[in-house]
Design a protein that fits this description.
By secondary structure, the protein is mainly α. Helix content is about 85%, strand content about 0%. The radius of gyration is 16 Å and the shape is globular.
């Protein structure tokens, strides 16, 4: 039950952060960033676009991460799509956000939400799946892995957002990755302390 509550909380926080980024007209990495770019260019809603883009990544998740992780990721993606759709309609309709607020506050919330999902063996698909796989196999920090992939997506999405907002988008990626990396380090230290206490 605690895991379910944590995943819901992670999706809610990530959803608010993503909408702040979207209403600042910024681009982030991963499938969320790709979905935002498509929504800017094609004028289509973010929520269904985000849901559809993630479908191919579930095959990799099943093969490499198992059904438990895949189902949790599918639930998180579905939940985030519903949350962003609902918040967009009820709270963020016509709501404009300054780029620097979107990059810092939106990026910070998105990073925190993703960190909560990672901590509970869930993700939002796409590069998140690969980041967690590389963490399990090679002990790579998922924040750094996400930063590399996110930067590639952001650079490709500068055309959709414009140069200035593209620079703010890079700042958002740095904030997101820094928050994930910080939370991961804190979690690892906490686990080490608990392990040491148990041995004593």
């Amino acid at each position: 039950m605690n895991r379910v509550i944590s995943i819901i909380l992670g999706c809610l926080i990530t959803g608010i952060g993503t909408l702040l980024l979207a209403h600042a007209h910024l681009v982030i990495g991963g499938t969320a960033g790709l979905s935002l770019s498509l929504s800017y260019l094609m004028g289509i809603p973010f929520s269904p676009t985000f849901f559809v883009i993630n479908i191919p990544f579930y095959t990799f998740a099943v093969l490499r991460m198992g059904w438990n992780f895949t189902l949790a990721t599918f639930a998180a993606v579905t939940l985030l799509s519903c949350i962003t759709g609902g918040l967009e309609h009820w709270l963020f309709n016509g709501f404009a956000v300054a780029p620097w607020i979107g990059a810092t506050l939106g990026g910070g919330l998105a990073g925190l939400g993703l960190a909560i999902l990672f901590e509970n063996r869930s993700s939002l698909g796409g590069a998140n799946i690969l980041a967690l796989y590389l963490e399990q196999k090679y002990n790579w920090n998922p924040g750094y892995t996400n930063c590399v992939f996110d930067s590639i997506v952001v650079l490709s999405g500068v055309y959709a957002a414009g140069l200035l907002r593209g620079l703010y988008s890079v700042l958002a990626v740095i904030v997101i990755s820094s928050v994930i990396g910080y939370c991961k380090s804190r979690s690892a230290k906490r686990a080490q302390i608990l392990s040491t206490a148990t041995e004593l």
